[in-house]
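Ex. 9. Protein: TetR family transcriptional regulator.
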Amino acid sequence: MADCYRGDKRATESKQQLRKALFQLLREKEWGKISVQDLTKRAGIHRTTFYQHYEDKFDLAQQVMGEMFDVMKETIFAPVSEGDWKEGHAAYVYIFRFYQHLQEHEEEYQILLKRGRELNIRQTVRAFFEESFSLGVEEVAGSKPDSQLVPIDMQKQFVMSAYAGTAEWWLRAGRPYSPDFMASSMIQLIENQSK
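Predicted structure tokens for TetR family transcriptional regulator:
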């Protein structure tokens, strides 16, 4: 049992070192110029250890990004009590948590913005926003959105584009406003659009 624990602990440490190495290298050079050897050397692990966890550098990048977005979803959609609502909106809490998470992990998300095209993360980001949209609607409305007026696929595209675009602008602009201000402003913008 202890061997199993030590193995799990070593695997976790190796993965953390590789993640750290990945972001350090992405800060320094283009994705296409990063090799598995660069990653293992920077992480201080052997290539065999790398291949025990990942098929190649693309698998590493996809898993790291998947984990990042999973953590973000868990953070955003942790249970909310009515006492946490602001301006009568549960949505405020989710939006605030989204921007707060981006702020706390700004360096990694800045690197993803810079290297996003090279890493081909569009599909991963899209899946994150689609799932988050569905979760958010269920949490805030307690049901699926009313598609009588506006088709659900159109609502989804609007919300995903608004949040992704605004978050990208916010990070690229150096976070000129607080997460609280961003959440309140997004609520206002959405309310104004629905009038």
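Check your answer against this statement. The chain has two domains: 1-54, 61-193.
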